[in-house]
Amino acid sequence: MSPTAIIIVIGNEILSGRTQDTNVNYIAKKLASVGIKLKEVRIIPDDRKVIVHALKTLRSTVDYVFTTGGIGPTHDDITSDCVAEAFGVSNPIHEESFKKLENYVGAKNFNKARQRMAHLPLGAVPIPNPISVAPGYIMGNVYVMAGVPQIMRTMFDAILPTLRHGDPIISRTWYAFDALEGAIAEGLSTLQQTYPQIEIGSYPFYDLNGKDGVALVAKGQDQTSVKEAAKKIRSLLISIGYDPHEGEPKP
Amino acid sequence: MSPTAIIIVIGNEILSGRTQDTNVNYIAKKLASVGIKLKEVRIIPDDRKVIVHALKTLRSTVDYVFTTGGIGPTHDDITSDCVAEAFGVSNPIHEESFKKLENYVGAKNFNKARQRMAHLPLGAVPIPNPISVAPGYIMGNVYVMAGVPQIMRTMFDAILPTLRHGDPIISRTWYAFDALEGAIAEGLSTLQQTYPQIEIGSYPFYDLNGKDGVALVAKGQDQTSVKEAAKKIRSLLISIGYDPHEGEPKP
User: Fold this and answer.
1) Which residues have a Cβ under 8 Å from the Cβ of B221 and sit 6 or more positions away?
2) What's the rounded Cα separation, in Å, for the pair B57 and B28?
3) From CA A197, how far away is CA A178, in angstroms rounded?
4) CA–CA gap between residue B91 and residue B145 (Å, rounded)
5) Neighbour tally for B197: CB within 10 Å
6) What residues does A127 pair with on adjacent strands?
């Protein structure tokens, strides 16, 4: 069985539309590449009750929970308090992180607000932050990361090799310009029935120059079936009169 | 009280990392502009049980549920079946939509797969689709839209004026280059306590040229408090020695 994961995005700025999230896509791609199945993403506000509830209810349903956001020094950074509450532990100073941060910002700048970033739920294992030192951490199966994409990425890249991997999910994609989903759908449905172990997806696209078409994706952990199905997708497209191209659509 | 909303994004392609979602940000911004509070976003797979469960449990918790994705002609487009099941109704042919689609694609091309797009849960009110005719629809407080951004946008723009609006959420933002959250956090926390009715957010940024800093946002429905708080945020930044700029950060 493939390991499973959920991402919890913590941040009013995503829900208000101020910020376009890009962390989910970054994490999702990398999880797929190591065969970890992303089952759900939940985007929730900086609200203590909501965060604690999400952590409590979701962490028992998957192998890994990844959170992004809310571990900075400001009043709206409440993720660590919430993780501590969800696990029923305190949120004390983590001595090693405290010293590193104090060293980094200088003793005279190491005010109460910054010190908050050195509080980790009791038992948490820090995830290093080479950019701005304030750590993420691992608490049970919950991986707590920063919201700033540059920092989140270094944290996620550091933990990825430590996770249990599944068989990588491989995929092949055929693009057919000017193709219409409605013309392909019946043949595709038959193909899906022939290959129940893989996932066949159909995604209309409009590229930057206003060209449109459909991308057809065969995806799964069994390389042979994916290859076979992709071959049949190509034949299907040709039989309808389309001219399929593999790879990304040309601009 | 402001009306509330949840977005359910339905699509394996988001969870696999194949597609970077942009629909949430589009909807979130517009909801904020008319004072509808987006409480949560849930991204879920093309899985019948999961979709039905999400619809059933979430729709009673908010005024509006918006869904994107899964209403095309292919086998992985199962949103309408799920909405029908969640509401305990059938999913029959919607005559008017059927005729429009048949007209649009031509009788001889109007195959079984395309006809699926003319099935709407019993009682649903169509949302017109000027781009490719296959409609979205309104079922109770659930607004079902396409996943393709171009189509989703025309659908959402059409329904937005029909929703109950709250007082628009206004915001003012100060950008301080080279500023550090840790230096501002304590003053900001005091400010937040002074203005409990508005939301004060702090968002570190890295711009395209590698410049970094912090964006400080005062946001709420009471214009006077937002203005006052924004003024005080500016003073706070200046008192620390930063040079705040209003508006978007310059590239």
Assistant:
1) B2, B35, B166, B167, B168, B169, B170
2) 21
3) 29
4) 16
5) 10
6) A136
The answer to whether B18 faces chain A, any CB pair under 8 Å, is yes
Q: Could B21 and A22 be called an inter-chain contact, meaning their C-beta atoms sit closer than 8 Å?
A: no
pLDDT at A204: 86
Mean pLDDT of B203-221: 83
* Residue pLDDT, tens place only, B66-104: 999 999 999 999 999 999 999 999 999 999 999 999 999
Test B189 with A113 for CB contact under 8 angstroms: yes
- Gap between the Cα atoms of B251 and B248, Å rounded: 9
Flag if A25 and B38 touch (Cβ within 8 Å): no
Residues A207-211, mean pLDDT to the nearest whole number: 67
Q: Which is nearest to A9 in space by CA: B21, B2, B207?
A: B21
Query: What integer pLDDT is reported at residue A209 of this predicted model?
Result: 66
Report pLDDT for A208. Answer: 60
Q: Which CATH class is domain B170-246?
A: alpha beta
Q: What is the DSSP letter of A100?
A: H
- Strands of chain B (E only): list them: 4-10, 37-44, 64-68, 125-127, 136-139, 142-145, 170-177, 199-206, 212-220, 245-246
Chain B residues 129-188 within an 8 A CB cutoff of chain A? 148, 150, 169, 171, 181-186, 188
Q: Which of A128, A133, A103 is nearest to A117 (CA)?
A: A133
Confirm whether pTM is higher than 0.80.
yes
Among B residues 220-249, those touching chain A with beta carbons less than 8 Å apart: none
User: Are B166 and B191 spatial neighbours (Cβ–Cβ below 8 Å)?
Assistant: no
Angle at A203 between CA A209 and CA A245, to 5 degrees: 65
Which residue from A16, A73, A184 is facing B181, i.e. has the nearest CB? A73
The predicted-structure confidence for A107-156, as pLDDT tens digits, reads as follows 999 999 999 999 999 999 999 999 989 999 999 999 999 999 999 999 99
Residue A236 vs residues A214, A241, B245: alpha-carbon distances, Å: 13, 9, 57
CA distance B151 to B129: 7
What's the token pair of residue B88?
């305990």
Four-CA torsion A189, A194, A199, A202, nearest 10 degrees: -30
* pLDDT at A210 > cutoff 80: no
Read off the DSSP letter of residue A59.
T
For chain B, counts of helices (H) and of strands (E): 9, 10
Q: What is the C-alpha to C-alpha distance for residues B229 and B110, in angstroms, rounded to an integer?
A: 59
What's at B61, amino acid-wise?
T
Superfamily, domain A4-162: MoaB/Mog-like domain (3.40.980.10)
Q: What is the CA radius of gyration of chain A?
A: 22
Topology at the third CATH level for domain A171-246: Alpha-Beta Plaits (3.30.70)
Confidence of residue B209 (pLDDT cuts 50, 70, 90): low
Q: Which of residues 62-91 of A touch B (CB under 8 A)?
A: 72-76
Q: Indicate the domain borders of chain A.
A: 4-162, 171-246
